[in-house]
Amino acid sequence: MSAARSAGEPVLVVVSPAALALDGESVRVARDVLGAAFEVKLVVPRSLDELERTLSRRGGRRLVLIGDDHALHQVVQLLHEQSGLSSGPVGIIPVGKGEKVVLARSLGAAGRPVDAARAVVSGCVRSLGLLVDESGGVVLGGLRIPGRGGPGQGLGAAAEPGRGGAPGARPTAGTGRSGVPPQLRGPAAERSLRANKAAAGRGVPLPSACREWGTQLGRAARTVAAQLLPARSGPGQALLVEADGRLLADLEHPIQLVAAWNAGTRGGAGGCAADGDSGLMEILVSAASLSGGPQRLRARRITVTGGPSTSFTYEADDSPGGPVQQRTWTVEPAAWGLTVPPAA
């Protein structure tokens, strides 16, 4: 579908403050390209509330965003909450460094701001799906639940603001990753701690030779105990994973990674001819106990549940969410449109 419209069409250009501070020249060039073709109203919202008001009052103006992936996620989330995604496509002019604009480019946006601005003028509309959780949080690209302590784990126990901190829960600028949560002490460590407290309570000084002997004995006991404990297969957490009613993992086999993303959105080059919306998500489940390697399948819905009285954290569009005890993500096909360059 062509995105080209009549000359002088009213367009609302929303500029992320971060983009303006990072590369004001690219913002100016994009504005000039758009201004030569459309009647442009340019807004720089300084808060999430101001952005929400701007989007709700845009009327029939075509929407163009100049900013990074975080700004794109905010705009799509708010439009979803306002039931405004069906009113017209979103134009994105990526401005940001490196990983800050990976998502926009994976969805099909042009890499250079000037090319992305030209695509808004004469490109086409690519139909895309969304992953939406039960509390309304959207995922444009993909979600990821790594095993505790595994590579890339940096979620910690950051609480979801408002309704659980998922990126869809009204994210704020500058949201960062918190540290990895401390490991729980094992039973042996707890027994040692209680013994130390008891000895300290008695207040009886020990001769240095006895203390040295006790230290050596404790070290030997810990070595033997470590040899008797079952070997661990690596990082993982107990999760129940279901996709379209099919059980993929149970609580008895620690999961090292759960990942899901919109089928057709990876490697988004190819313009509107590319399949950006299959109505399904790609799912990958990895566990050390899986003899045939990671499970890969397509489904419309995935539900992840933690063990009894436990919760898990996750990454959605590379932003932290959780902890939650259970979360379900469902594909909403053809939920929104993105203006992209035409296929070469």
UniProtKB/TrEMBL annotation:
Family matches, as SUPFAM superfamilies: NAD kinase/diacylglycerol kinase-like
Disordered: annotated span: 151-186
Keyword Transferase attributed: yes
Domain DAGKc: start-end pairs: 45-128
Keyword annotations: Kinase, Transferase
Organism domain of life: Bacteria
GO terms, molecular function: kinase activity
Name of the protein described by the UniProt record: Diacylglycerol kinase family protein
Species this protein is from: Streptacidiphilus alkalitolerans
